[in-house]
Specification:
Number of helices: 10
Number of domains: 2
Largest sheet: 2 strands, antiparallel
Strand order of the largest sheet: 1-2
Number of strands: 6
Bound molecules: heme C
CATH architecture of the largest domain: Orthogonal Bundle
Strand content: 5-15%
Length: about 240
């Protein structure tokens, strides 16, 4: 009987684990939306290396600049390659049909990707590309097998080969083939900033929520004092 229950429990749980990709361990990333410098660096990496293929079509350039404390001139000179109007949505200039022809699948919009895939997943994904001769574009990814995206940051990270899996942690082990222009620590920081930015992108209101919360509490405190004084005033004549 007990074995029967265990088998059933496993049968129920395993599809959930597979769907969530829980069988592939990820590295954890520290997300801090009040770190404005990190968000700005992430935005720069995003427009330089991702926007050529992916859109973030639910975000406008000027909203991003305002949220992240970026001035108009910096926005126009350093962050707007795909458009010239600050009120434009952050769309890629790559036509969807071309993208399908080149990659076999159109690069998905990334505005909400940090909600669909979790921050830890994105952070691990962007550090898990490795050389693979069998893949059409020469790259593969341990977290997203046979992914159609090439390793667009290889000049920064360098290239690596998959050496095997760590039997204890289940995490991949890589050997460096060519050094990139960044050290491993610098590359991790770059990806952390980029992930931080993608988390902001998926829920820009998170930046505001904290300051609104403080206002709400202050308002309630003032209201409490007023209500107390009013109560005293009303009951004055009753006693
Ligand atoms: C050369 C074009 C190209 C560039 C540049 C590019 N990507 Fe991609 N990306 C793709 C394609 C194509 C896919 C779809 C892969 C698939 O489904 O096999 C993809 C998929 C992804 C996914 C997985 C989405 C999902 O949930 O399935 C993420 C996350 C992602 N890209 C992030 C980025 C980031 C961040 C950058 C900038 C550093 C970037 N990409 C730059 C082509 C590109």
């Amino acid at each position: 009987m007990r074995r029967f229950i265990v088998v059933w429990a496993l049968a129920l749980v395993s599809p959930v684990c597979l769907a969530a990709g829980a069988h592939k361990p990820t590295d954890s990333v520290y997300i801090n939306l009040s770190d404005q410098a990190s968000l700005q660096r992430g935005a720069r990496t995003f427009v330089n290396y991702c926007l050529s293929c992916h859109s973030a079509a639910y975000m406008r350039y000027n909203r991003m600049a305002k949220d992240l404390g970026i001035s108009d001139s910096v926005l126009k000179e350093n962050l707007m390659f795909a458009s010239d109007k600050p009120g434009d949505l952050m769309k890629t200039n790559m036509a969807e049909e071309d993208a399908k022809k080149w990659f076999g699948v159109a690069p998905p919009d990334l505005t909400l990707v940090a909600r669909v895939r979790k921050p830890d997943w994105i952070y691990t994904y962007l550090r898990s590309f490795y050389l693979d001769e069998k893949s059409p574009n020469g790259w593969n990814n341990t977290l997203f097998e046979n992914v159609a995206m090439p390793h667009v940051l290889y000049s920064l990270q360098g290239s690596q080969r998959l050496a095997g899996m760590d039997p204890e942690t289940g995490k991949p082990q890589f050997t460096v083939v060519r050094q990139g222009s960044l050290s491993p620590e610098e590359y991790d920081t770059l990806i952390r900033d980029l992930t931080n930015f993608l988390v902001y992108l998926a829920e820009p209101i998170k930046l505001k929520r904290h300051s609104i919360g403080v206002f709400v509490i202050l308002f309630l405190l003032v209201f409490l004092v007023l209500a107390y004084l009013l109560k005293k005033e009303y009951w004055k004549d009753v006693h």
